[in-house]
Amino acid sequence: MSEESFLVVTELRAGYGGAQVLHGLSFAVRRGEVCAILGANGAGKSTLLRALCGMVRPRGAVRLDCADLTGRAPEAMARLGVAHVPEGRGTFTPLTVEENLRLGGYRHRRRADVEAGLRRVFGYFPVLEDKLREQAGSLSGGQQQMLAIGRALMLTPRLLLLDEPSLGLSPLVTQELFRIVRTINEEEGTTVIVVEQNAHLALENAHQAHVLETGRIVLSGSAAEIKADEQVARSYLGYRV
């Protein structure tokens, strides 16, 4: 793997009970890149993110900035700067927007750091400041996704894991979310791994991509190369160039 690699995954295997889902995945992501994970339903994309954030105990090796993360619990991953936005958003719907965000900043010891985190989130998602006292469950789907990403940003993550951020959202809202994610990546240097069914949009906003099929990486390369390859697009990604 490259000496510049920030995240290095080696022979990663994971599953649920006796069912193995991931079969020896190896790849690396450089610091400050956006990496797209693509593939059909059931390919193992969400399991990969769960293994990277500690929700699923993997075999193999996961190293982040030279630290061994293999087998660490989710709270330990969060302390090391790994933030996971799960499919379905995972907001606490009975709580207010403010309460959700402050929960995201739980690891900050100083009140000033929490307040700075809130201001930073509102800079990306002004609508959340307008709805600060409203219950999360009353927000639109797009606003709930903004809240989920905002809560993850309260951790000040070094690695942001996004699982299907466009799920159930309109094309316009999806485009705006991806624009904000790219801004976070470019302005803050946050490394991002995004699992996304909308392969075309994911590739437009990523530096590199890996295509999964039945728990194995079948294709890797720069996002631009994969996006431009008509055979790849038809065979693996479900669209025409």
Compact overview of the structure:
It contains ten helices and ten strands. With 241 residues, the protein is α/β, with parallel strands linked by helices.
What does this structure look like?
InterPro entries: AAA+_ATPase, ABC_transporter-like_ATP-bd, ABC_transporter-like_CS, BCAA_Transport_ATP-bd_LivF, P-loop_NTPase. Belongs to the ABC transporter superfamily. Keywords: Amino-acid transport, ATP-binding, Nucleotide-binding, Transport. This protein is about 40% helix and about 25% strand. It is built from ten helices and ten strands. It has helices at about 45-55, 75-80, 95-105, 110-125, 125-130, 140-155, 170-190, 200-205, 225-230, 230-235, and strands at about 5-15, 20-30, 35-40, 60-65, 65-70, 80-85, 160-165, 190-195, 210-215, 215-220. The chain has a six-stranded mixed beta sheet with strand order 6-7-8-3-9-10, with helices on both faces. A four-stranded antiparallel beta sheet has the order 2-1-4-5, with helices on one face. The longest helix has 18 residues, at about 170-190. About 40% of the residues are buried.
Shape: globular
**Separation of termini?**
30 Å
SS summary, helix count: 10
Radius of gyration: 17 Å
**Uncertain stretches of 5 or more adjacent residues:** none
> How large a portion of the residues is in β-strands, by DSSP E?
25-35%
Counting DSSP E segments of at least 2 residues, the number of strands comes to 10
* CATH homologous superfamily label: P-loop containing nucleotide triphosphate hydrolases
Overall pLDDT metric = 91
InterPro entries: AAA+_ATPase, ABC_transporter-like_ATP-bd, ABC_transporter-like_CS, BCAA_Transport_ATP-bd_LivF, P-loop_NTPase
Domain ABC transporter: 7-239
Family: Belongs to the ABC transporter superfamily.
GO biological process, one term: L-amino acid transport
